[in-house]
């Protein structure tokens, strides 16, 4: 697989273009400021009334409506929550698109699952930083960049791919390297990762371990430290140097337990279920379920949030974290 760096990207492709960053949230604030610092002309489409509107003003932008921003721009970067993008696109962006414009996404969901269906005469590309927006901004100001994926869905101008690479350079991505993917690959792997491993798999693993200890009569505070708090220390070691680096740091006792007990916790049955989750992503069942959930006003999401907030791991954790003066409140 080829990595692309600064020297592979031509920022002159960004010159003479007006960029409309729609949404000044996590990704939006980072893309808008990084692009501006890279010499691009940037306008911000952000609805009034909230913190993000004030933040955009504090950062020296004059936020306008999504429709106004789309109208004056050549490049429209849609950085709204996935479930909001379809409506805003239909009402505010589509009526203001012109042939040769570029639509840019940081995640492929709405294009891949057909919630946004752009006309044939615009370019549709993705530049997806592999990190949260606040890191994308901070790392850029330090002279480095967060790695990105880029992809082309539709190339009407003939320069969509080069443009996406130039954009990745504009937000700092090529400083550390960017990889090429497709909308399908990015969307499906992103959903799978968050469901099976990063969010769904991890939270259920931590919670089950905590419950097992508490149900066996151990103090919940001790269970919290063992099953949740220490997770970060382990993950940091894996992040910095892979599994072997982590196993090098832990005791032989821990390492032996890891090799012999781990496969009894995450079993072939778990992997078979992972495959079923992946199939539901690939055939659109998950997307359909989530789209309908949003049409129902997120009824299930609200209920599940409320229920998990009451779990003892959260109440015990809140008390313990209050004692940890080094944690950001
Ligand atoms: P955020 O949730 O941080 O974005 C919120 C922005 O959308 C705010 O400007 C908010 O305005 C606006 N907004 C929310 N609802 C509406 C609405 N109904 N009408 C108009 N504006 C609205 O999004 P992210 O930055 O997290 O995500 C943006 C895109 O980037 C997504 O496609 C996501 O998948 C992708 N992405 C996100 C990453 C991340 O780490 N967060 C990483 C990589 C990609 P207000 O303040 O007024 O509510
Ligand atoms: Mg995701
Ligand atoms: Mg131990």
Automatic annotation (TrEMBL):
Q: Which gene produces this protein?
A: ilvC
Residue positions binding Mg(2+) 2: 190, 226, 230
Q: Which organism is it from?
A: Desulfobaculum bizertense DSM 18034
Which Gene3D superfamilies does this one have?
6.10.240.10, NAD(P)-binding Rossmann-like Domain
| Residues given in the record as NADP(+) binding sites | 24-27, 47, 133
Q: Where does substrate bind?
A: 251
Q: Which residues form the KARI N-terminal Rossmann domain?
A: 1-181
Q: What name does UniProt use for this protein?
A: Ketol-acid reductoisomerase (NADP(+))
- What cofactors does the UniProt entry give for this protein? Mg(2+)
